[in-house]
Amino acid sequence: MKRYSLLVALLLCYGALMAQNTVRGRVSDDKGEPLVGVNITIKGTTQGAFTDGEGLFSIPAAPDAVLVASYIGFETVEIPVGNQSNIEITLSGAEVLDEVVVVGFGTQKKATLTGSVNQFKTEELTRRQVPSVSQLLQGIAPGVSVWQSSGKPGADGANIRIRGTGSIFSGTGPLVIVDGIVSSLDYLDPNSIESMTVLKDAASTSIYGVRGANGVILVKTKRGAGKGVKITYNNFFTQQEATNIPEKVSAVEHMELSNIAQQNNTGNPNAVVFPLALIDRYKTSPADNLEIFNNDWVGLLLTNSGLMQNHNVTLDAGSEKARLFTSVSYLDQQGLIQNNSFRRLDIRMNPDIQISKNLNLTGTFFFNQGTRIEPAGASPEFIIRQAIGLPATGPAKFGDGQYGDAGQSNRRNPLGQAEASGITTTIAPSIMGQAQLNYRPIKGVELSAAYAREQWTPNTKRFQKNFDIYVPNVANKTYDFSGRYPGTNALSETYSFNYRNTFLAQGSYQYTKNGNDAKLMLGYQTEEFSNRSLGASRSDFVNEDLDYLSLGGANRDNSGGGTETALIGYFGRLNYAFKDKYLLEVNGRYDGSSRFSQELDKQWAFFPSASAAWVFSQEGFLKDNAILEFGKIRGSWGTLGNQTLPDNYPFAATYTSGTNYYFNNITNSGFSLTEAVNPGITWENSTQKNIGLDLAFLKGRLNVTADYYIKEISDLLFRKPIPAYTGLSPAYLNLGSMENRGWELAITFRNRVGKLKYDITGLLADVQNKVTSLPGVPNLDEGLLRSEVGQPLRSYYGYKAVGYFQTVEEIAAAPTHFFTPKPGDIRYEDLNGDGKVNTDDRTFIGNSFPRYEYSFNLNLEYGIFDLNAFIQGVGQKENYISGTGAWPFFAADFIPSLLAVHKDYWTPSNPNAAFPRLLPAIGVNGTNSSFWVKNSAYIRLKNVNLGVRLPEKLADKLGVQRARLYVSGQNLFTQTEFWEGFDPEINNNTAEFYPLMKTYTIGLNVSFK
């Protein structure tokens, strides 16, 4: 018996030894050089080891184990152990492998690209939790300017400009293509995106011809992997608050400063607007909401929760022959004021069917519906502007449904407008279906044909209701009904039906032999767009609970319209590579557009481009270099067009109905010509040149990309002023030219130190704009903004401020001004030295184009923890401030007050104050001048995301493939010298804006097997 027990024990020991053989090995790169610090793990466990200085490792592993070798900058490799005791592993550098990049109408290897292209995968796009995909582009691609002008729910998408502005009056935004179809970034849920590619130079965008001048953004959505069923669930919950809201003065400060302004204006030191006795009462008695008011309008109005939540479920199912990716997302975003929110439902289905060995069918179907809620009485922006501008002395609200008159003669109360003026509801459903057949008849030949139709039918219903205004009855200590605001209710409805049909057919042939690789692609595309719209309105509804147009008793009105456009394009591309060392690409597109005259032969144009690259690291003298892993220099040239205008028929005379005329003693309705016509108008032309350098060092851990470019835009579309007596708006003309010159730099370093894996990316870019010609026009004058040869487009134009007048003696000795100055007024420089300050002394005083845009992105991963930190900023930028947000006691349409910063005003004892002397109105001190041009450069902690993953063993027990819990913050900290209380990213600083959002988020990502 003892012998059998001993035998069993020996067998068990032997089995244990067999189960845990020590596997040794060496890891090297493509050139046989050892790799230090490669992470070797047993798949499905936390057991691991690292290679030493000679690339050697050892690790206990069972025969059925799988080794995973991963290293920053190299592809990850999996090796079954089996009976091996010594394993040689070779890792190839990921940066110079066959990474596929989506380009126009196809894909290419990253290493063989000859154009300026940036691509981002879904992992990079889902690190920030934002309601609009366009916001995700900020700071991730050099040369791509992205900024928000509003934080309003449903309207917080970012503005995007690639390599400077491309037009004066024509469109300046990039073309967005989603799965081959023209679309919008803000229709998308980030969890549905597989990759996003930004095409920046002519070599990359000329294949889009007349629509590619401002750059192109390509989005590829996810498709089924064909590996069984995988379900993922993603959510986040966010608390939003304004990044900046200016501080206001109190009721007492408002009254005291109002008196000082009146005294300065009249020269009477005893002049008052508010009696001193009243001010004393305010100082000694608390606000009672009857006689004494000290209302914080911002606090009263910004009372909505600001909560945002997003839920997304995806299904990846099927086999190699039939696959399906489905995504369903729901977003709910509350605003800062009452009755202000946005909800979005997004459903996407991407099926793939392998019909035969050489034929497959792919489909794309999506439904998207956004619902935006706003107060009917005024826009959220105007309500917030009133909150910032109104004095604290106005009565706000006395009780439920009892609103004060805010101290205004027109009785307009922003709190009533937000809470009780009715609702404006905009519902925008959109549906799209696309089918594509792909056929490979023989080796090297690919044919495809696709058809897509998209329909969207936005409709808006606005029912403005009256709300009750009350006034205090001090004697009875009650409130008396005073009337209703605005006095007349009104209902309006608008409806629009739109569709876009797209047909695309293309074919390609690839030939490879003896190091020669050539590919020819030809294609044909048509696109037609149609719009029909109608609207109706009525007022004077007896019952405000019934919102039907037929019940309105007065001001019956209706309108309607429509438009159609079409575009046809023939395009092609030829790629040639010799041993992936010498690269050449030629693109061309021949476009025809219905926006221009057929009779004058203006509808068609050809847009070519050519580019070449040399992978010099493949040359013999560098091939065995231990430092340089990859090196490529590239250059491109090409021409593109821009046809985006507000008018679809700028070449034709168009007439507008609704013009009345009196004839034969009666009033008749008719049509009128409202706009001058230019039959010879055509698209703008953009000629672009680019030279770039791509480098990889230290076995792919350090990557550098640099570009320099010139964009020359000619035949600029703009309106030359014509005499007012014509009664017509000016026609669009092709007149003038400008250029953008810029450079871009991107540096990325990836590494691993023990269990710590990290990568750091820094981006820096600059672009300078200049108008180069305006034939027959000395300048384009738009008041504050002026365009002139040799200057940036739409530069600020005005007087040069040189401080304040300090004394009467200084005024007497100064050049004569165009006004009668007093001490404390802004002094302007006599630039031409003629002893007079007048319009001849105006000059260029700044411009709003950002320069030296930069960002830093840090990713850290240690075990189950990960951290992402993103910093973004602008090194040089100027904003012109004016109106309610800048000038003391300014409001064009309500009682004005002051911000706290206005308390730093000029007096003889405060000669270097931030503001001129106080006056009841800004007057001459509000003249366009350099005084109001402020430095809006900034650096911002844009986002921080900290996550923890569920350990693999625990995940296996729970039946979960992967789970990650995270917290994040957006717009957390900003350093700037800009206007206190205002966000430097927003160019509009008149105080009529919706603040950008600072957010705090908690979220969960779960994948189920």
Automatic annotation (TrEMBL):
UniProt keywords, alphabetically: Cell outer membrane, Membrane, Receptor, Signal, Transmembrane, Transmembrane beta strand, Transport
Keyword Lipid metabolism: no
Main localization of the protein described in the UniProt heading: membrane
Compartment(s) of residence: Cell outer membrane
Domain TonB-dependent receptor plug: 110-216
Cellular component annotations (GO), alphabetically ordered: cell outer membrane
Signal peptide start-end: 1-19
Domain of life: Bacteria
InterPro entries associated with the record: Beta-barrel_TonB_sf (IPR036942), CarboxyPept-like_regulatory (IPR008969), Plug_dom (IPR012910), Plug_dom_sf (IPR037066), TonB-dep_OMP_SusC/RagA (IPR023996), TonB-dep_OMP_SusC/RagA_CS (IPR023997), TonB-dep_rcpt-like (IPR039426)
Membrane topology: Multi-pass membrane protein
Pfam families in alphabetical order: CarbopepD_reg_2, Plug
Family: Belongs to the TonB-dependent receptor family.
Name of the protein: TonB-dependent receptor plug
Species of provenance: Haliscomenobacter hydrossis (strain ATCC 27775 / DSM 1100 / LMG 10767 / O)
